[in-house]
Amino acid sequence: MKYQNIFVDLDDTIWDFRTNSKIALEIIYDRYGLSEYYPLFDEYYRVYSEKNTELWSLYHHNRISKETLIVERFRYPLQRVGAYNDKLVLQLNADYLSVLSEQGELVPQARELLDYLKSRSYRLHIISNGFKEVQFKKMKSAGIENYFEKIILSDEVGVNKPHPDIFRYALNKTGSSKNTSLMIGDNYDADILGAMRSGLDQVYFNPLQKQIPDEFPTYEVQTLSEICDIL
After folding, report:
1. Whose CA is closest to 59, among 208, 198, 142, 160?
2. Most buried residue, 20, 97, 144, 222, by most Cβ within 10 Å?
3. What domains are defined for the chain?
């Protein structure tokens, strides 16, 4: 068996962030009466999501702080309609994270993949840029916390993927060798290039079949079940 330790990204690789986030945002939209500013939830969701994606890209590369991210993603949609205030933005973020952590939808075939990997005696670990106050709760809500031996979060390490320090930290914490470790993730920059430049093989989970912009990953799959054919 070539690989012994499997490092897995959480959001949108195993835990269905897109689905769970949309559910949480719609609850927040209704709870705070945001239809006053955005009569259609889908319009609010579009504006929020575009800004959130932009901010997460900056956060992955340590160009903005966590505090900036959580404020700006809720500030921007409100500012566009002249409804911004500091207190409301902080309330929206706190309630959103609370509701989000209660959601448990998994990416299709995720649980089957985890069962397969555990049955093959791989050691499984999480490496995530997500916030520590919600990542453990999200895993518990989905019933997947017991699949993983170690949970490595960028909040605790002090740097985000793709920075090599978080991969070095993960290898050290798990007692792993990069030559027998594999990274599975859906984010090309954070997960794939980060692992590649740290000397780990990678599986790029690419369900939307995005064009690969730079160096090719060790493996590429469109569904999680395809990973069973690799391992």
Report:
1. 160
2. 20
3. 5-16+106-230 (3.40.50.1000), 17-100 (1.10.150.240)
